[in-house]
């Protein structure tokens, strides 16, 4: 079971790194005026929920599998993403 948890965590982290690179490239395109702000927002907004789910799943999985140190490392990022989502829902 432990190997499955870490393999899934590795794949999830790879996907999150890829998503972060995509965010940086899209924001760089916005900065260089290759795309407008509306297009940039529509491209990035559809990936916010999968990012939130990815961080939260890994954090909960580490908590359930009793890997406390890795759980504590992932907890601030998951908490920040949940806080950011709650603020976005309140402001809409």
TrEMBL record:
GO terms (BP aspect): vesicle-mediated transport
InterPro entries: Cornichon (IPR003377)
Top-level taxon in the UniProt lineage: Eukaryota
Membrane topology: Multi-pass membrane protein
Major localisation: membrane
SMART domains: Cornichon
Keywords: Membrane, Transmembrane, Transmembrane helix
UniProt keyword Heme, yes or no: no
Subcellular location: Membrane
Residues annotated as transmembrane: 5-25, 52-75
GO CC, one annotated term: membrane
Family statement: Belongs to the cornichon family.
PANTHER family linked: CORNICHON-RELATED
Name by which UniProt lists this protein: Cornichon family AMPA receptor auxiliary protein 4
Organism of provenance: Urocitellus parryii (Arctic ground squirrel)
């Amino acid at each position: 079971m432990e190997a499955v948890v870490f393999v899934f965590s590795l794949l999830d982290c790879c996907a999150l790194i890829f998503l972060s690179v995509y965010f940086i490239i899209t924001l760089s395109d916005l900065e260089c005026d290759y795309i407008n702000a509306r297009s940039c927002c529509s491209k990035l907004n559809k990936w916010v929920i999968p990012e939130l789910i990815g961080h939260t799943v890994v954090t909960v999985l580490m908590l359930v599998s009793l890997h406390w140190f890795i759980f504590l490392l992932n907890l601030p990022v998951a908490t920040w993403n949940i806080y950011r989502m709650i603020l976005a829902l309140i402001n809409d």
